[in-house]
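Agenda item 2: sulfopyruvate complex prediction
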Amino acid sequence: MASKLEALEHWVNEVAALTRPARIHWCDGSDAEYQALVQQMLQTGTLIELNQQTHPGCYLHRSNPSDVARVEHLTFVCHPDEQDAGPNNHWMAPAEAHAKIDALFDGCMVGRTMYVIPYCMGPIDSPLARCGVEITDSPYVVANMRIMTRMGAAAQARIEREGTFIKGLHSTGELDPERRFIMHFPAELSIKSYGSGYGGNALLGKKCHALRIASHQARSEGWLAEHMLIVGIENPQGETHYIAAAFPSACGKTNLSMLIPPEGYLRDGWKVWTIGDDICWMRPGADGRLYAINPEAGFFGVAPGTSGSTNHNALTSISHDTIFTNVAVTADNQPWWEGLPGTPAIDWQGRPFDPANGPAAHPNSRFTVSAKQCPTWSEMAEAAQGVPISAIVFGGRRPSLLPLVMEARDWTHGVLMGAAMGSETTAAATGTVGVLRRDSMAMKPFCGYHYGDYFAHWLSFDQPGAKLPKVFHVNWFRKGANGKFLWPGFGDNLRVLEWMINRVEDRVDGVETPIGILPGDGELKVDGLRLDPAQLDALLDVDNAGWQAELAAIGEYLQTFVPHLPERLREEQQRVARALDAAD
Ligand code: GTP
Ligand code: SPV
Ligand code: MN
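Presented output:
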Protein backbone atom coordinates (compact mmCIF):
# COMPACT_ATOMS: atom_id res chain seq x y z
CA MET A 1 0.00 0.00 0.00
CA ALA A 2 1.29 3.45 -0.83
CA SER A 3 2.42 5.43 2.22
CA LYS A 4 0.15 8.29 3.20
CA LEU A 5 3.30 10.40 3.18
CA GLU A 6 3.33 9.98 -0.58
CA ALA A 7 1.09 12.98 -1.12
CA LEU A 8 3.50 15.06 0.95
CA GLU A 9 6.56 13.76 -0.87
CA HIS A 10 4.91 14.36 -4.21
CA TRP A 11 4.12 17.98 -3.27
CA VAL A 12 7.65 18.60 -1.93
CA ASN A 13 9.11 17.34 -5.23
CA GLU A 14 6.72 19.51 -7.19
CA VAL A 15 7.69 22.61 -5.19
CA ALA A 16 11.40 21.78 -5.51
CA ALA A 17 11.03 21.51 -9.28
CA LEU A 18 9.49 24.99 -9.33
CA THR A 19 11.72 26.77 -6.81
CA ARG A 20 14.98 24.83 -7.55
CA PRO A 21 16.65 24.91 -4.10
CA ALA A 22 20.26 23.83 -3.61
CA ARG A 23 19.18 21.38 -0.89
CA ILE A 24 16.11 20.15 0.97
CA HIS A 25 15.99 19.83 4.76
CA TRP A 26 13.14 17.94 6.46
CA CYS A 27 12.72 19.47 9.92
CA ASP A 28 12.57 17.04 12.85
CA GLY A 29 11.91 19.71 15.46
CA SER A 30 14.82 18.60 17.66
CA ASP A 31 16.85 20.83 19.96
CA ALA A 32 19.99 20.05 17.99
CA GLU A 33 18.31 21.18 14.79
CA TYR A 34 17.22 24.46 16.41
CA GLN A 35 20.72 25.11 17.78
CA ALA A 36 22.32 24.42 14.39
CA LEU A 37 19.88 26.84 12.73
CA VAL A 38 20.68 29.53 15.30
CA GLN A 39 24.43 29.09 14.73
CA GLN A 40 23.96 29.34 10.98
CA MET A 41 21.82 32.50 11.32
CA LEU A 42 24.38 34.07 13.66
CA GLN A 43 27.00 33.50 10.97
CA THR A 44 24.92 35.04 8.20
CA GLY A 45 23.75 37.95 10.37
CA THR A 46 20.08 36.93 10.22
CA LEU A 47 20.28 36.71 14.00
CA ILE A 48 22.30 38.89 16.34
CA GLU A 49 23.38 37.56 19.70
CA LEU A 50 21.98 39.51 22.65
CA ASN A 51 23.63 39.76 26.09
CA GLN A 52 23.88 36.08 27.08
CA GLN A 53 24.57 36.89 30.75
CA THR A 54 21.28 38.73 31.20
CA HIS A 55 19.35 36.97 28.40
CA PRO A 56 20.63 33.44 27.81
CA GLY A 57 19.47 31.92 24.53
CA CYS A 58 18.08 35.26 23.30
CA TYR A 59 18.64 36.62 19.81
CA LEU A 60 17.61 39.63 17.78
CA HIS A 61 16.37 39.63 14.20
CA ARG A 62 16.13 42.87 12.25
CA SER A 63 13.70 42.52 9.40
CA ASN A 64 13.81 44.56 6.25
CA PRO A 65 12.43 48.03 7.19
CA SER A 66 9.75 47.61 4.50
CA ASP A 67 8.65 44.31 6.05
CA VAL A 68 7.52 44.92 9.61
CA ALA A 69 3.81 44.02 9.77
CA ARG A 70 1.00 42.12 8.10
CA VAL A 71 0.04 43.49 4.68
CA GLU A 72 -3.74 43.35 4.42
CA HIS A 73 -3.83 44.98 0.96
CA LEU A 74 -1.64 42.17 -0.42
CA THR A 75 -3.55 39.36 1.31
CA PHE A 76 -6.03 37.46 -0.85
CA VAL A 77 -8.64 34.79 -0.39
CA CYS A 78 -8.75 32.87 -3.67
CA HIS A 79 -11.93 30.84 -3.53
CA PRO A 80 -13.40 29.74 -6.89
CA ASP A 81 -16.57 31.65 -5.94
CA GLU A 82 -15.92 35.37 -5.41
CA GLN A 83 -19.14 35.61 -3.40
CA ASP A 84 -17.69 33.19 -0.87
CA ALA A 85 -14.81 35.54 -0.01
CA GLY A 86 -17.20 38.41 0.73
CA PRO A 87 -16.58 42.16 0.84
CA ASN A 88 -14.38 41.65 3.92
CA ASN A 89 -11.63 39.99 1.83
CA HIS A 90 -9.56 40.83 -1.22
CA TRP A 91 -10.35 38.20 -3.80
CA MET A 92 -8.52 36.82 -6.80
CA ALA A 93 -9.57 33.92 -9.05
CA PRO A 94 -7.53 30.83 -8.11
CA ALA A 95 -6.04 30.32 -11.60
CA GLU A 96 -4.93 33.94 -11.83
CA ALA A 97 -3.53 33.86 -8.29
CA HIS A 98 -1.55 30.65 -8.90
CA ALA A 99 -0.16 32.03 -12.17
CA LYS A 100 0.84 35.30 -10.56
CA ILE A 101 2.53 33.86 -7.51
CA ASP A 102 4.05 30.78 -9.19
CA ALA A 103 5.87 33.16 -11.54
CA LEU A 104 7.49 34.65 -8.45
CA PHE A 105 8.30 31.22 -6.96
CA ASP A 106 9.93 30.12 -10.24
CA GLY A 107 13.58 29.51 -9.36
CA CYS A 108 13.35 31.65 -6.21
CA MET A 109 15.26 29.14 -4.03
CA VAL A 110 18.29 28.72 -6.30
CA GLY A 111 21.31 28.47 -4.01
CA ARG A 112 19.08 28.37 -0.92
CA THR A 113 18.01 25.57 1.41
CA MET A 114 14.37 24.55 1.23
CA TYR A 115 13.00 23.59 4.64
CA VAL A 116 10.04 21.24 4.99
CA ILE A 117 8.26 21.92 8.30
CA PRO A 118 5.57 19.46 9.42
CA TYR A 119 3.59 21.04 12.24
CA CYS A 120 0.51 20.40 14.34
CA MET A 121 -1.84 23.19 15.44
CA GLY A 122 -3.08 22.05 18.85
CA PRO A 123 -2.08 19.26 21.25
CA ILE A 124 -0.66 16.46 19.12
CA ASP A 125 -3.26 13.93 20.35
CA SER A 126 -6.23 16.32 20.24
CA PRO A 127 -9.20 15.56 17.99
CA LEU A 128 -9.55 19.36 17.61
CA ALA A 129 -5.96 19.76 16.36
CA ARG A 130 -5.03 19.98 12.66
CA CYS A 131 -1.74 19.50 10.85
CA GLY A 132 0.01 21.41 8.15
CA VAL A 133 3.32 21.49 6.34
CA GLU A 134 5.10 24.73 5.58
CA ILE A 135 7.82 24.79 2.95
CA THR A 136 10.07 27.83 3.32
CA ASP A 137 13.52 29.10 2.41
CA SER A 138 13.77 31.13 5.63
CA PRO A 139 15.66 29.66 8.60
CA TYR A 140 14.13 32.47 10.71
CA VAL A 141 10.68 31.11 9.83
CA VAL A 142 11.78 27.58 10.80
CA ALA A 143 13.06 28.78 14.18
CA ASN A 144 9.86 30.73 14.85
CA MET A 145 7.62 27.85 13.74
CA ARG A 146 9.52 25.58 16.16
CA ILE A 147 8.53 27.90 19.02
CA MET A 148 5.01 28.71 17.80
CA THR A 149 3.80 25.21 16.85
CA ARG A 150 4.30 21.54 17.70
CA MET A 151 6.78 21.08 14.89
CA GLY A 152 8.71 18.07 13.61
CA ALA A 153 8.63 14.30 13.93
CA ALA A 154 5.42 13.95 16.00
CA ALA A 155 3.47 16.16 13.61
CA GLN A 156 4.86 14.23 10.65
CA ALA A 157 3.76 10.96 12.26
CA ARG A 158 0.21 12.33 12.66
CA ILE A 159 0.22 13.47 9.03
CA GLU A 160 1.35 10.00 7.99
CA ARG A 161 -1.53 8.52 10.01
CA GLU A 162 -4.21 10.92 8.76
CA GLY A 163 -2.95 11.63 5.28
CA THR A 164 -4.36 15.17 5.37
CA PHE A 165 -2.57 18.44 5.95
CA ILE A 166 -2.65 22.10 4.92
CA LYS A 167 -0.04 22.92 2.28
CA GLY A 168 1.80 26.19 2.93
CA LEU A 169 4.46 27.42 0.55
CA HIS A 170 6.57 30.39 1.55
CA SER A 171 9.61 32.25 0.25
CA THR A 172 11.08 35.51 1.49
CA GLY A 173 11.87 36.22 -2.17
CA GLU A 174 13.56 39.58 -2.60
CA LEU A 175 11.54 41.30 0.20
CA ASP A 176 10.33 43.70 -2.46
CA PRO A 177 6.92 45.15 -1.47
CA GLU A 178 6.08 45.19 -5.20
CA ARG A 179 6.65 41.45 -5.35
CA ARG A 180 4.71 40.39 -2.24
CA PHE A 181 1.50 38.35 -1.96
CA ILE A 182 -0.17 36.32 0.78
CA MET A 183 -2.65 34.01 -0.94
CA HIS A 184 -5.14 31.53 0.46
CA PHE A 185 -6.86 28.73 -1.43
CA PRO A 186 -9.52 27.44 0.97
CA ALA A 187 -10.98 25.00 -1.56
CA GLU A 188 -7.50 23.47 -2.08
CA LEU A 189 -6.50 23.68 1.59
CA SER A 190 -3.36 25.55 0.61
CA ILE A 191 -1.51 28.82 1.18
CA LYS A 192 1.16 30.58 -0.89
CA SER A 193 3.12 33.48 0.58
CA TYR A 194 5.89 35.35 -1.20
CA GLY A 195 8.11 38.34 -0.48
CA SER A 196 7.73 38.84 3.28
CA GLY A 197 9.57 37.26 6.18
CA TYR A 198 7.39 38.83 8.86
CA GLY A 199 5.10 37.22 11.47
CA GLY A 200 1.59 36.70 10.21
CA ASN A 201 2.75 36.90 6.58
CA ALA A 202 5.36 34.17 6.90
CA LEU A 203 4.62 31.90 9.88
CA LEU A 204 1.88 30.18 7.91
CA GLY A 205 0.57 28.05 10.79
CA LYS A 206 -0.61 31.20 12.53
CA LYS A 207 -3.02 33.60 10.82
CA CYS A 208 -3.02 31.94 7.37
CA HIS A 209 -3.77 28.39 8.52
CA ALA A 210 -5.19 28.68 12.05
CA LEU A 211 -7.58 31.51 11.13
CA ARG A 212 -8.18 32.06 7.40
CA ILE A 213 -8.16 28.43 6.22
CA ALA A 214 -9.39 27.03 9.56
CA SER A 215 -12.37 29.43 9.72
CA HIS A 216 -13.40 28.07 6.34
CA GLN A 217 -13.12 24.46 7.54
CA ALA A 218 -14.83 25.35 10.83
CA ARG A 219 -17.87 26.66 9.00
CA SER A 220 -18.49 23.40 7.16
CA GLU A 221 -17.52 21.20 10.13
CA GLY A 222 -19.48 23.02 12.85
CA TRP A 223 -16.78 24.65 14.95
CA LEU A 224 -15.21 28.09 15.40
CA ALA A 225 -11.67 29.33 14.61
CA GLU A 226 -11.26 32.67 16.36
CA HIS A 227 -8.76 35.46 17.05
CA MET A 228 -9.10 34.97 20.82
CA LEU A 229 -7.01 34.50 23.92
CA ILE A 230 -8.02 31.78 26.39
CA VAL A 231 -7.49 32.36 30.11
CA GLY A 232 -8.48 30.44 33.23
CA ILE A 233 -9.51 32.42 36.32
CA GLU A 234 -9.33 30.46 39.58
CA ASN A 235 -11.16 31.95 42.56
CA PRO A 236 -10.11 31.49 46.20
CA GLN A 237 -12.52 28.51 46.41
CA GLY A 238 -10.48 26.75 43.71
CA GLU A 239 -13.12 26.98 40.98
CA THR A 240 -11.75 27.82 37.54
CA HIS A 241 -13.69 29.54 34.78
CA TYR A 242 -12.21 29.72 31.29
CA ILE A 243 -12.79 32.89 29.31
CA ALA A 244 -12.13 33.43 25.58
CA ALA A 245 -11.67 37.02 24.42
CA ALA A 246 -11.43 38.55 20.96
CA PHE A 247 -9.64 41.90 20.73
CA PRO A 248 -8.15 43.18 17.47
CA SER A 249 -4.38 43.05 16.90
CA ALA A 250 -2.38 44.97 19.51
CA CYS A 251 -5.48 45.55 21.69
CA GLY A 252 -4.55 43.52 24.75
CA LYS A 253 -4.98 39.75 24.24
CA THR A 254 -1.48 38.74 25.33
CA ASN A 255 -1.75 41.02 28.36
CA LEU A 256 -5.14 39.71 29.50
CA SER A 257 -4.13 36.07 28.98
CA MET A 258 -1.37 36.30 31.60
CA LEU A 259 -2.54 39.12 33.86
CA ILE A 260 -1.31 39.44 37.42
CA PRO A 261 -4.16 39.90 39.92
CA PRO A 262 -4.22 43.14 41.93
CA GLU A 263 -2.72 42.88 45.41
CA GLY A 264 -5.95 42.24 47.32
CA TYR A 265 -6.95 39.49 44.90
CA LEU A 266 -3.53 37.84 45.19
CA ARG A 267 -3.84 37.89 48.97
CA ASP A 268 -7.25 36.27 48.74
CA GLY A 269 -5.85 33.48 46.56
CA TRP A 270 -7.03 34.33 43.03
CA LYS A 271 -4.98 32.64 40.29
CA VAL A 272 -4.67 33.15 36.54
CA TRP A 273 -3.97 30.30 34.11
CA THR A 274 -2.81 31.00 30.58
CA ILE A 275 -4.03 28.70 27.80
CA GLY A 276 -3.50 30.92 24.75
CA ASP A 277 -2.87 34.54 23.78
CA ASP A 278 -4.01 34.85 20.15
CA ILE A 279 -5.98 31.99 18.60
CA CYS A 280 -8.79 29.77 19.86
CA TRP A 281 -10.46 26.82 18.20
CA MET A 282 -13.69 25.73 19.85
CA ARG A 283 -16.50 23.29 19.31
CA PRO A 284 -19.54 22.06 21.24
CA GLY A 285 -18.86 19.08 23.52
CA ALA A 286 -21.25 16.25 24.38
CA ASP A 287 -22.56 18.29 27.35
CA GLY A 288 -23.51 21.20 25.07
CA ARG A 289 -20.75 23.52 26.29
CA LEU A 290 -18.11 25.00 23.99
CA TYR A 291 -14.65 23.43 24.44
CA ALA A 292 -11.56 25.33 23.32
CA ILE A 293 -7.96 24.59 22.47
CA ASN A 294 -5.10 26.95 21.74
CA PRO A 295 -3.71 25.69 18.43
CA GLU A 296 -0.39 27.44 19.11
CA ALA A 297 2.54 26.49 21.33
CA GLY A 298 4.14 29.91 21.72
CA PHE A 299 3.54 33.64 21.86
CA PHE A 300 4.41 36.10 19.09
CA GLY A 301 3.81 39.10 21.31
CA VAL A 302 3.98 42.88 20.95
CA ALA A 303 7.14 44.15 22.72
CA PRO A 304 6.47 47.89 23.24
CA GLY A 305 4.51 48.56 26.41
CA THR A 306 5.55 45.21 27.95
CA SER A 307 7.07 46.06 31.31
CA GLY A 308 7.40 44.89 34.88
CA SER A 309 4.38 46.95 35.86
CA THR A 310 2.12 46.11 32.90
CA ASN A 311 2.98 42.48 32.18
CA HIS A 312 5.51 40.97 34.54
CA ASN A 313 4.66 37.44 33.40
CA ALA A 314 5.57 38.24 29.80
CA LEU A 315 8.80 39.86 30.96
CA THR A 316 9.70 36.73 32.95
CA SER A 317 8.81 34.51 29.98
CA ILE A 318 11.16 36.37 27.64
CA SER A 319 14.16 36.54 29.96
CA HIS A 320 15.68 33.54 28.17
CA ASP A 321 15.40 31.46 24.97
CA THR A 322 13.50 34.11 23.04
CA ILE A 323 13.75 35.53 19.53
CA PHE A 324 13.22 39.30 19.41
CA THR A 325 12.26 40.99 16.15
CA ASN A 326 12.80 44.72 15.49
CA VAL A 327 13.44 45.78 19.08
CA ALA A 328 16.20 48.23 20.07
CA VAL A 329 19.24 47.30 22.18
CA THR A 330 20.94 48.99 25.13
CA ALA A 331 24.64 49.84 25.35
CA ASP A 332 25.25 46.47 27.04
CA ASN A 333 23.32 44.64 24.33
CA GLN A 334 20.09 43.91 26.14
CA PRO A 335 16.79 44.06 24.25
CA TRP A 336 14.95 47.35 24.77
CA TRP A 337 11.64 48.96 23.84
CA GLU A 338 9.47 51.86 24.88
CA GLY A 339 8.04 51.14 28.33
CA LEU A 340 11.18 49.49 29.72
CA PRO A 341 13.57 51.29 32.08
CA GLY A 342 17.02 52.15 30.76
CA THR A 343 17.94 53.81 27.49
CA PRO A 344 18.34 52.48 23.97
CA ALA A 345 21.73 52.71 22.26
CA ILE A 346 20.88 51.17 18.87
CA ASP A 347 17.47 51.41 17.24
CA TRP A 348 15.47 48.64 15.52
CA GLN A 349 17.20 49.34 12.21
CA GLY A 350 20.68 49.02 13.73
CA ARG A 351 21.38 52.77 13.76
CA PRO A 352 22.67 54.68 16.80
CA PHE A 353 19.47 55.78 18.56
CA ASP A 354 18.30 59.27 17.60
CA PRO A 355 14.83 60.36 18.74
CA ALA A 356 14.56 62.28 15.45
CA ASN A 357 14.26 58.89 13.71
CA GLY A 358 11.15 57.92 15.72
CA PRO A 359 10.75 55.22 18.37
CA ALA A 360 13.82 53.11 19.15
CA ALA A 361 11.87 49.87 18.88
CA HIS A 362 9.45 49.44 16.00
CA PRO A 363 5.85 49.86 17.32
CA ASN A 364 5.13 46.33 16.00
CA SER A 365 8.37 44.81 17.31
CA ARG A 366 7.75 41.39 18.79
CA PHE A 367 9.07 38.51 20.87
CA THR A 368 8.71 34.83 20.00
CA VAL A 369 8.72 32.57 23.03
CA SER A 370 7.50 29.12 24.04
CA ALA A 371 4.22 29.32 26.00
CA LYS A 372 5.74 26.93 28.54
CA GLN A 373 8.11 29.69 29.68
CA CYS A 374 5.16 31.71 31.00
CA PRO A 375 4.85 31.48 34.81
CA THR A 376 1.06 31.17 34.46
CA TRP A 377 1.12 28.58 31.67
CA SER A 378 -1.52 25.93 32.33
CA GLU A 379 -1.18 22.17 31.92
CA MET A 380 -4.72 22.35 30.55
CA ALA A 381 -3.24 23.87 27.39
CA GLU A 382 -2.22 20.29 26.57
CA ALA A 383 -5.66 18.81 27.29
CA ALA A 384 -6.80 16.94 24.18
CA GLN A 385 -10.48 17.81 24.72
CA GLY A 386 -9.79 21.48 25.44
CA VAL A 387 -11.26 23.59 28.24
CA PRO A 388 -14.94 24.52 28.70
CA ILE A 389 -15.64 28.19 28.00
CA SER A 390 -17.79 30.11 30.52
CA ALA A 391 -17.69 33.51 28.84
CA ILE A 392 -16.85 35.02 25.49
CA VAL A 393 -15.58 38.60 25.54
CA PHE A 394 -15.39 41.08 22.68
CA GLY A 395 -13.53 44.37 22.89
CA GLY A 396 -11.57 47.03 21.07
CA ARG A 397 -9.90 50.39 21.35
CA ARG A 398 -12.78 52.81 21.70
CA PRO A 399 -11.81 56.25 23.08
CA SER A 400 -15.46 57.07 23.72
CA LEU A 401 -19.02 55.70 23.97
CA LEU A 402 -18.31 52.02 24.73
CA PRO A 403 -18.61 51.31 28.48
CA LEU A 404 -15.97 49.45 30.47
CA VAL A 405 -18.13 46.33 30.35
CA MET A 406 -21.57 45.22 29.23
CA GLU A 407 -23.26 41.85 28.93
CA ALA A 408 -25.37 40.64 26.04
CA ARG A 409 -28.92 39.63 26.98
CA ASP A 410 -28.63 36.40 24.96
CA TRP A 411 -26.57 34.70 22.23
CA THR A 412 -28.13 36.65 19.36
CA HIS A 413 -27.39 39.94 21.09
CA GLY A 414 -23.86 38.67 21.77
CA VAL A 415 -23.33 37.92 18.10
CA LEU A 416 -24.51 41.47 17.31
CA MET A 417 -22.03 42.87 19.85
CA GLY A 418 -19.23 40.91 18.19
CA ALA A 419 -20.32 41.86 14.68
CA ALA A 420 -20.55 45.54 15.67
CA MET A 421 -17.07 45.66 17.18
CA GLY A 422 -15.01 48.65 16.24
CA SER A 423 -11.46 49.56 17.10
CA GLU A 424 -8.74 52.05 16.31
CA THR A 425 -6.18 50.58 13.91
CA THR A 426 -2.75 49.65 15.30
CA ALA A 427 0.80 49.04 14.06
CA ALA A 428 0.15 45.29 13.71
CA ALA A 429 -0.76 45.91 10.05
CA THR A 430 0.73 48.41 7.62
CA GLY A 431 -1.38 51.54 7.10
CA THR A 432 -2.63 54.45 9.16
CA VAL A 433 -2.72 53.95 12.92
CA GLY A 434 -5.53 55.24 15.17
CA VAL A 435 -8.50 55.35 12.79
CA LEU A 436 -11.72 53.71 13.93
CA ARG A 437 -12.79 50.80 11.78
CA ARG A 438 -15.29 47.97 12.20
CA ASP A 439 -13.53 44.73 13.04
CA SER A 440 -16.22 42.12 13.64
CA MET A 441 -15.11 39.56 16.23
CA ALA A 442 -11.54 40.94 15.71
CA MET A 443 -11.55 38.82 12.53
CA LYS A 444 -11.61 41.51 9.80
CA PRO A 445 -8.12 40.57 8.56
CA PHE A 446 -8.58 36.86 9.29
CA CYS A 447 -12.06 35.59 8.43
CA GLY A 448 -11.51 33.40 5.36
CA TYR A 449 -15.06 33.79 4.01
CA HIS A 450 -18.03 36.15 3.71
CA TYR A 451 -18.73 37.95 6.98
CA GLY A 452 -22.50 37.56 6.41
CA ASP A 453 -22.09 33.77 6.32
CA TYR A 454 -19.74 33.98 9.28
CA PHE A 455 -22.37 35.79 11.38
CA ALA A 456 -24.91 33.13 10.36
CA HIS A 457 -22.43 30.45 11.43
CA TRP A 458 -22.06 32.09 14.85
CA LEU A 459 -25.86 32.26 15.22
CA SER A 460 -26.15 28.57 14.30
CA PHE A 461 -24.59 27.50 17.63
CA ASP A 462 -27.79 28.59 19.38
CA GLN A 463 -29.49 25.19 19.34
CA PRO A 464 -31.66 23.14 21.68
CA GLY A 465 -29.39 21.53 24.27
CA ALA A 466 -26.57 24.02 23.74
CA LYS A 467 -25.10 25.47 26.96
CA LEU A 468 -23.54 28.52 25.41
CA PRO A 469 -21.18 30.88 27.23
CA LYS A 470 -22.41 34.31 28.29
CA VAL A 471 -21.20 37.05 25.96
CA PHE A 472 -19.67 40.35 27.11
CA HIS A 473 -18.11 43.45 25.55
CA VAL A 474 -15.28 45.37 27.23
CA ASN A 475 -13.39 48.58 26.54
CA TRP A 476 -10.15 49.19 28.45
CA PHE A 477 -9.44 52.24 26.30
CA ARG A 478 -12.18 54.79 27.06
CA LYS A 479 -10.66 58.22 27.61
CA GLY A 480 -11.62 61.11 29.87
CA ALA A 481 -11.86 64.79 28.98
CA ASN A 482 -8.11 65.06 29.69
CA GLY A 483 -7.38 62.52 26.93
CA LYS A 484 -6.12 59.93 29.41
CA PHE A 485 -7.40 56.36 29.79
CA LEU A 486 -10.11 56.29 32.46
CA TRP A 487 -9.46 52.68 33.44
CA PRO A 488 -6.07 51.53 34.84
CA GLY A 489 -6.28 48.29 32.80
CA PHE A 490 -3.80 45.39 32.87
CA GLY A 491 -4.00 43.50 36.22
CA ASP A 492 -7.03 45.49 37.29
CA ASN A 493 -8.97 44.01 34.38
CA LEU A 494 -9.44 41.02 36.70
CA ARG A 495 -12.04 43.15 38.54
CA VAL A 496 -14.11 43.14 35.36
CA LEU A 497 -13.57 39.42 34.79
CA GLU A 498 -14.72 38.76 38.36
CA TRP A 499 -17.98 40.61 37.64
CA MET A 500 -18.45 38.46 34.52
CA ILE A 501 -17.90 35.28 36.50
CA ASN A 502 -20.35 36.51 39.15
CA ARG A 503 -22.88 37.01 36.35
CA VAL A 504 -22.18 33.51 34.99
CA GLU A 505 -22.69 32.10 38.49
CA ASP A 506 -25.78 34.29 38.99
CA ARG A 507 -24.28 35.93 42.08
CA VAL A 508 -25.01 39.51 40.96
CA ASP A 509 -27.93 40.98 39.04
CA GLY A 510 -26.45 43.78 36.95
CA VAL A 511 -28.61 46.58 35.57
CA GLU A 512 -30.52 46.29 32.32
CA THR A 513 -29.97 49.09 29.82
CA PRO A 514 -30.97 49.31 26.15
CA ILE A 515 -27.41 48.33 25.11
CA GLY A 516 -27.04 45.40 27.52
CA ILE A 517 -26.54 44.55 31.18
CA LEU A 518 -24.06 46.74 33.07
CA PRO A 519 -22.65 46.31 36.59
CA GLY A 520 -25.05 47.49 39.28
CA ASP A 521 -24.03 49.72 42.18
CA GLY A 522 -21.13 48.20 44.09
CA GLU A 523 -20.98 45.09 41.87
CA LEU A 524 -17.65 46.03 40.33
CA LYS A 525 -15.01 45.79 43.06
CA VAL A 526 -12.90 48.92 42.93
CA ASP A 527 -11.52 48.92 46.48
CA GLY A 528 -7.81 49.67 46.52
CA LEU A 529 -8.07 51.47 43.17
CA ARG A 530 -7.33 55.14 42.87
CA LEU A 531 -10.44 55.87 40.88
CA ASP A 532 -12.77 58.67 41.85
CA PRO A 533 -16.52 57.98 41.65
CA ALA A 534 -16.91 60.39 38.71
CA GLN A 535 -14.37 58.34 36.78
CA LEU A 536 -16.30 55.12 37.39
CA ASP A 537 -19.51 56.85 36.34
CA ALA A 538 -17.82 58.01 33.14
CA LEU A 539 -16.61 54.45 32.45
CA LEU A 540 -20.11 53.05 32.80
CA ASP A 541 -22.01 55.95 31.27
CA VAL A 542 -24.54 55.13 28.53
CA ASP A 543 -24.92 58.13 26.24
CA ASN A 544 -28.30 57.52 24.62
CA ALA A 545 -27.88 59.95 21.70
CA GLY A 546 -24.38 58.65 21.01
CA TRP A 547 -25.69 55.09 21.02
CA GLN A 548 -28.55 55.93 18.68
CA ALA A 549 -25.96 57.19 16.19
CA GLU A 550 -23.82 54.10 16.81
CA LEU A 551 -26.74 51.75 16.13
CA ALA A 552 -27.46 53.60 12.90
CA ALA A 553 -23.81 53.18 11.89
CA ILE A 554 -23.93 49.49 12.83
CA GLY A 555 -27.05 49.13 10.70
CA GLU A 556 -25.29 50.68 7.71
CA TYR A 557 -22.29 48.44 8.24
CA LEU A 558 -24.42 45.29 8.44
CA GLN A 559 -26.14 46.37 5.23
CA THR A 560 -22.83 45.87 3.37
CA PHE A 561 -23.19 42.09 3.91
CA VAL A 562 -26.62 41.78 2.28
CA PRO A 563 -27.76 39.35 0.85
CA HIS A 564 -25.58 37.13 3.07
CA LEU A 565 -26.56 39.00 6.24
CA PRO A 566 -28.76 36.79 8.46
CA GLU A 567 -32.18 38.38 8.99
CA ARG A 568 -31.94 37.53 12.69
CA LEU A 569 -28.95 39.86 13.09
CA ARG A 570 -30.70 42.68 11.25
CA GLU A 571 -33.73 42.24 13.53
CA GLU A 572 -31.49 42.30 16.58
CA GLN A 573 -29.91 45.58 15.48
CA GLN A 574 -33.43 46.98 15.04
CA ARG A 575 -34.48 45.71 18.47
CA VAL A 576 -31.59 47.52 20.19
CA ALA A 577 -32.22 50.68 18.15
CA ARG A 578 -35.90 50.64 19.21
CA ALA A 579 -34.94 50.11 22.88
CA LEU A 580 -32.72 53.19 22.67
CA ASP A 581 -35.48 55.24 21.06
CA ALA A 582 -37.91 54.16 23.78
CA ALA A 583 -35.46 55.24 26.50
CA ASP A 584 -34.88 58.62 24.86
P1 GTP B 1 -1.66 40.85 18.71
O1 GTP B 1 -0.51 39.98 19.12
O2 GTP B 1 -1.29 41.85 17.66
O3 GTP B 1 -2.87 40.07 18.33
O4 GTP B 1 -1.98 41.83 19.98
P2 GTP B 1 -2.66 41.59 21.41
O5 GTP B 1 -4.14 41.70 21.29
O6 GTP B 1 -2.12 40.35 22.04
O7 GTP B 1 -2.18 42.89 22.24
P3 GTP B 1 -1.16 43.03 23.47
O8 GTP B 1 -1.64 42.32 24.70
O9 GTP B 1 0.19 42.68 23.00
O10 GTP B 1 -1.26 44.60 23.76
C1 GTP B 1 -0.95 45.56 22.79
C2 GTP B 1 -0.69 46.89 23.43
O11 GTP B 1 -1.80 47.31 24.22
C3 GTP B 1 0.53 46.89 24.36
O12 GTP B 1 1.30 48.03 24.14
C4 GTP B 1 -0.07 46.88 25.73
O13 GTP B 1 0.76 47.49 26.66
C5 GTP B 1 -1.39 47.64 25.54
N1 GTP B 1 -2.43 47.17 26.50
C6 GTP B 1 -2.76 45.88 26.75
N2 GTP B 1 -3.71 45.79 27.72
C7 GTP B 1 -4.01 47.06 28.08
C8 GTP B 1 -4.91 47.63 29.04
O14 GTP B 1 -5.65 46.95 29.76
N3 GTP B 1 -4.94 49.00 29.11
C9 GTP B 1 -4.14 49.78 28.33
N4 GTP B 1 -4.23 51.10 28.47
N5 GTP B 1 -3.26 49.28 27.42
C10 GTP B 1 -3.20 47.94 27.29
C1 SPV C 1 -1.73 40.12 14.86
O1 SPV C 1 -1.44 41.03 14.07
O2 SPV C 1 -2.90 39.91 15.24
C2 SPV C 1 -0.65 39.28 15.43
C3 SPV C 1 0.68 39.38 14.82
O3 SPV C 1 -0.89 38.48 16.31
S1 SPV C 1 0.81 38.51 13.33
O4 SPV C 1 1.32 37.18 13.61
O5 SPV C 1 1.76 39.25 12.49
O6 SPV C 1 -0.49 38.41 12.71
MN1 MN D 1 -3.16 38.54 16.82
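Discussion summary: The domain at 6-47+73-222 is CATH 3.40.449.10 (Phosphoenolpyruvate Carboxykinase; domain 1).
Owner for follow-up: CH.
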